[in-house]
Amino acid sequence: MARLLKKLTVLVLVVVGFSGMMNAANAALAIIGNPANPLEGISAADVAMIYLGKSDEFPDGRRAVAVDQYRHSPVRAEFYRKVVGMGPVRLKSYWSKLIFSGRGEPPRAVGGNEAVKRWVARHPDGIGYVDGKVLDRTVKVLLIVP
Predict the structure, then answer these.
(1) Reported pTM
(2) What pLDDT score does 11 carry?
(3) Average pLDDT, stretch 18-39?
(4) I need a surface site. Which of 20, 23, 29, 46 has the fewest CB within 10 A?
(5) pLDDT confidence of residue 22
(6) Residue 86: left if φ>0, alpha if ψ -120 to 50, beta else—which one?
(7) Where are the chain's structural domains?
(8) CA 74 to chain centre
(9) C-alpha count within 13 angstroms, C-beta hemisphere, residue 24
(10) How far apart are CA 117 and CA 105, in angstroms?
C-alpha cells in the first residue's frame, strides 16, 4: 500500500510538472530543488525533517542543504506554518534550544524568492521554497503546497 501511495504521489507530481508552470504559478508555495536533482518529488514530512535539522539527506540518501528566506518574509511564515507546523515564536524557541545545546543550526537565510531560486539553481544539493508565482526553468519543483 505504501509503495502504491509513493507511485501515485510521483505520478501526480509528474502530471503537475507537465501541465506547465501556470498551474505551479497559481500555487501558494513551491518546494524547489536544483534541476540536476534526480528526485521526481518529495513529501512535506521529508521537507520538514530537513528544515528542522533532523535530516540532512533527500529521501534517496543524497545530501540535502536547505536554504531559508529572510526572517520577516511572509513566504517563510507560510512555509513554516503549512509544511513544518510551527509559527515564528515556536520556531525561534526550537532553534534556540538546539543552538544552545550545540546540536544544530537553522538553515542559512539568503533573501527572498529570487535569492532562494538563484541559490538552489547553483547548488545541486540545494532545497528551498518560493512563492509559486516566481517559478521558472532554473529550478525543479519537488512539491506544491496549496
Answers:
(1) 0.81
(2) 46
(3) 75
(4) 20
(5) 47
(6) beta
(7) 2-145
(8) 15
(9) 27
(10) 21
